[in-house]
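pinned: reference chain
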Amino acid sequence: MGPKRGDDGKLAFTLPMGDGKLPGIAAEDIGKCALGIFKKGGELIGKRVGIAGEQLTGTEMAAALTGALGKEVVYNYVPPEVYRTFDFPGAADLGNMFQFKRDFQDAFCGPRGVEATRDLNSSLQSFDAWLDKNKDRIPIE
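pinned: its structure tokens
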């Protein structure tokens, strides 16, 4: 799902999200948020807690990747029905998942507030901060 070179040699980041935002969070921040939930004591018992480090569009993610990698990365939108036909395991499932996230932004992004997450984990990383630490681990095909 990372950037891949197209026939024109340019790097493209492909998702079926259109202009929709996608909540994301660094794996190491998830545990810190869980600790923040436990520290709240009884306040969150019986409540659902959604978390996100940021909520970015594909275009915003591509711009961040461009900055981190020092090479232009463009966002390539493909409709979910096209994404589902891609030849890799799970393409149909991922196409369905991204379509739901795109079509039901309020239901999906709403419960995953960045400020509420930051209240649980004051050292929450932005996508840019995560990229700064991990850019060398991103495979480029």
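why pinned: The chain has one domain: 4-134. Residues 57 and 104 are 14 Å apart (CA to CA).
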